[in-house]
Amino acid sequence: MSREQIKSDAGLESLFGALEQRDYPENAVIYHAGKSCEALYEIFQGLVKLVHYLPNGAVRTVRLLRRHDTFGLEALVDEHYHHTAIALQETRLRLIPLDRMQSLRQSYPEFSQQLMLDWQKSLDEADRFITEFSTGSAESRLARLLLFLAEPSQGCCFNKIGRLDIASILGVTTETSSRLMADFRRRGVIDCMPGRCNCNPQQLRVIAEDF
Amino acid sequence: MSREQIKSDAGLESLFGALEQRDYPENAVIYHAGKSCEALYEIFQGLVKLVHYLPNGAVRTVRLLRRHDTFGLEALVDEHYHHTAIALQETRLRLIPLDRMQSLRQSYPEFSQQLMLDWQKSLDEADRFITEFSTGSAESRLARLLLFLAEPSQGCCFNKIGRLDIASILGVTTETSSRLMADFRRRGVIDCMPGRCNCNPQQLRVIAEDF
DNA sequence: CGTAACATTGATTGTCTTCAATACGGGTGG
DNA sequence: CCACCCGTATTGAAGACAATCAATGTTACG
Hints:
Two copies of one chain form a homodimer.
Chain A: H1 3-8, H2 10-17, E1 21-24, E2 29-31, E3 39-45, E4 47-53, E5 59-66, E6 70-71, E7 84-87, E8 91-97, H3 98-107, H4 110-131, H5 138-150, E9 157-159, H6 163-170, H7 174-186, E10 190-193, E11 196-199, H8 201-210
Antiparallel strand pairs in A: 1-8, 2-7, 3-6, 3-8, 4-5, 4-7, 9-11, 10-11
Helix pairs in contact in A: 5-8, 6-7
The structure holds a DNA duplex (30 and 30 nucleotides).
């Protein structure tokens, strides 16, 4: 059962229709880790990162979310958000306030099923961060990240992304991510222009599995 | 609402009471990735790893589970298990067959809440693998792993664990995990005897945050 | 047009992997 | 009981890789 199906239901349609939308500019903080939960979020458009601040002040990105992804699910079982959520691009979100959740779940049992799907999706994405973005050489991890970023556009291009962001996703330094991106550019694996990059998915796939 | 509270409910008590338990020896496979889901599992006693096989044949451990942890939740939303589950020690599990789940969830709405708690716990553990076991130097990652393993026993000792297992958790080679464990032993940070290790949590915490 | 933030590059150091050899431990069959 | 054997752990030496420190380019924006 997809969220679209749920939305086609007349009752839910009106409920969802009434939900607030918000737009965030690049680098806007959506919520801070430890702050009390007010809503859960669904992405209409854009790219969001969930980051975790380490005891020594360093920062690690633990999730990348885009269109149709849901985040902030911990709101349903905990008082406080577990990560800091930041928009990596201009982003439009739909908010589902916590108080609405109660009525949604009571009126529509199938909504619980949708929540489980969202939760499992989060878990699968977390696993991707472990197996793809934290395993192997920095070069192959970067190749996998670029393939991930290019996914929505039939695998050939992706929006610009800062070297510091890449570094915090892969767990390397900005110098390393910059060097690798520059190498990819020189080798013709990617072709960057202001605001956008084209890439060669075949080459990236080879590098991604090379270790 | 805790699982204990649910279990104290008379109706659920009988349902849970009737559930099958199974014992697995060290290294036993509980289920294979891709196999069709039959049940979800709760750990009574022991230690279980969820592993992911990479395209190149290497293996990465994505989760460590112990007493009171639940796994195989993907059974609720997918046909197939997403990981291979293997017992790291002698382990006793309680199975909750999928067909039982339906009746449990229908009869006891609060059971859905428990499921969400379990799902969030899985997600938190996945995040731990990213932020603690995949970030920083191999040495500090190992220190964090040992602190995690020692947690149940007031932080001072843990059962023996193979170097290959450590390596697949931290994303390093067995040689590296062996060298680091040997160093810790020589420096008096840990004290290993057959089947069991004592450790110095204070020293481990310093190393864990050192990066 | 100046400046601050970000990206790139170089040189060096330290860490981790790789390949290879050796040691250990627990179980088996003689 | 002991010798052997296999799987695991340890250790060494060499090289690859990524971090660090430092300098220089580049870009966007007020």
